[in-house]
Amino acid sequence: xxxxxxxxxxxxxxxxxxxxxxxxxxxxxxxxxxxxxxxxxxxxxxxxxxxxxxxxxxxxxxxxxxxxxxxxxxxxxxxxxxxxxxxxxxxxxxxxxxxxxxxxxxxxxxxxxxxxxxxxxxxxxxxxxxxxxxxxxxxxxxxxxxxxxxxxxxxxxxxxxxxxxxxxxxxxxxxxxxxxxxxxxxxxxxxxxxxxxxxxxxxxxxxxxxxxxxxxxxxxxxxxxxxxxxxxxxxxxxxxxxxxxxxxxxxxxxxxxxxxxxxxxxxxxxxxxxxxxxxxxxxxxxxxxxxxxxxxxxxxxxxxxxxx
Amino acid sequence: xxxxxxxxxxxxxxxxxxxxxxxxxxxxxxxxxxxxxxxxxxxxxxxxxxxxxxxxxxxxxxxxxxxxxxxxxxxxxxxxxxxxxxxxxxxxxxxxxxxxxxxxxxxxxxxxxxxxxxxxxxxxxxxxxxxxxxxxxxxxxxxxxxxxxxxxxxxxxxxxxxxxxxxxxxxxxxxxxxxxxxxxxxxxxxxxxxxxxxxxxxxxxxxxxxxxxxxxxxxxxxx
Lengths: 308, 223
Ligand SMILES: Nc1ncnc2c1ncn2[C@@H]1O[C@H](COP(=O)(O)OP(=O)(O)OP(=O)(O)O)[C@@H](O)[C@H]1O
Ligand SMILES: [Mg+2]
Prior knowledge:
The structure holds 2 protein chains of 2 kinds.
Chain A: H1 11-18, H2 23-27, H3 33-71, E1 74-79, H4 83-98, E2 103-108, H5 111-122, E3 135-141, H6 148-158, E4 162-165, H7 168-210, H8 212-220, H9 225-256, H10 284-305
Antiparallel strand pairs in A: 1-3, 1-4, 2-3
Helix pairs in contact in A: 3-7, 3-9, 7-10, 9-10
Chain B: E1 2-10, E2 15-24, E3 29-33, H1 40-47, E4 55-60, E5 63-64, H2 70-77, E6 80-83, H3 95-99, H4 101-105, H5 112-121, H6 137-149, E7 155-159, H7 167-182, E8 186-190, H8 194-201, E9 207-212, E10 215-218
Parallel strand pairs in B: 3-8, 3-9, 6-7, 7-8
Antiparallel strand pairs in B: 1-2, 1-4, 4-5, 9-10
The complex binds adenosine-5'-triphosphate and magnesium ion.
Adenosine-5'-triphosphate (ATP) binds at residues 11, 16, 34, 36-42, 85 of chain B.
């Protein structure tokens, strides 16, 4: 028997394997309750996990994009100085920024905005004006951006109380982390696919060993390998498809029912799918079926090759 | 049909069969005898390519068994009806389905009337719906013979087909085999039953092969 791996995945092989004309081939192998349930459960559990891995990957991808684009381009200058010097230093910084190449615009945050920033921590009744709070200037970066070190040096010279906080110190690792998370999600998907293939191969091997006498009888009466293989492949493919469909639907329900907070930036509540993203997990059941088809076919041909 | 040329065989130990040369000509009827353990079943397995010779050459329908692919073997089995010594069935399917299995795996449809006639002929008409584990040893052998001949194969190889049968039923099976032989089938029956051989020789020209000292020889006329 000659066969090569790519043939496993040919749709031309997949479709006939599932057609009703093979019901007869299916019947010659006795129904096997245990491996059937095992395959169903495995496919379901793996699809369930895969949906979450997919959601994680998509959500962290979105997060990475948002952090990279929304946060990029803004920076804050914090000015702490004795009250009598504060206004002069703010004016000096604003003047300095207007002549700095790479800075598109700058804006001094008023006390209402500062109160809004602090409110989550200190509550609404904070007497902002009475406190010796630093003043904040928000600057928007042009493209190409400014030279951070150069700006820091000039600030130190002209307004000793000014500190440039260009976000990148914490923004970059977070964007990188989100990017990693996206990769890890994708890697998990690959691992889940591989485990599914491995587990279905094991279940198929168990079913094949349990049915060796049946296979011998079929060989004796002139059944070709392809016929025997179809009986097993059809069964495992359909089971995997069913299990994966159940797992996928349950996981999608679970994600759809996650509470949705108003805060769009919250990572956990942003875990769901968005728009066309909801169609992606629907690919998992057919993918599982293809994996089961290839794995069972491989296992069955290998078992048969070992028999006379 | 099936030819052995200087065939030797061993299961990995000492030589079990050696230097066997013979031809099963189309339409011939052979018996194969010999002491238990002499290699009768082994010989039959060589003849339907379940085993490959370790020396010499077995040709099945003019093809070297050693060069046949797995599909070639499957296709050749559709032209060779085999009755195993230990008749194996698909235990979860009723007798009638088991008997028509050779047609099923070849994607052929059988005539239900032919099936009914065949089952009646081997005395299993009433057991068509029984599951194989519910059958007696003799019933299994008759079912195995029915399965072997349902495709009307060119060659019939039977290993002790009357081992569990009473004399009446043995005669009945013999009549069936004689009938098939007259239709031109090539037949080889391994058996210990000398009475059966004598009975057959009174009805047609059957040759008797004997496995002795690892060789297959034509037995003398003393039978
Ligand atoms: N698969 C095997 N591996 C090793 N030895 C085997 C195998 N099958 C059979 N043998 C040995 O080969 C010898 C011949 O066996 P075979 O079944 O051909 O005998 P037989 O003539 O059919 O005997 P019986 O009349 O009892 O059916 C026996 O000694 C048996 O033990
Ligand atoms: Mg024997």
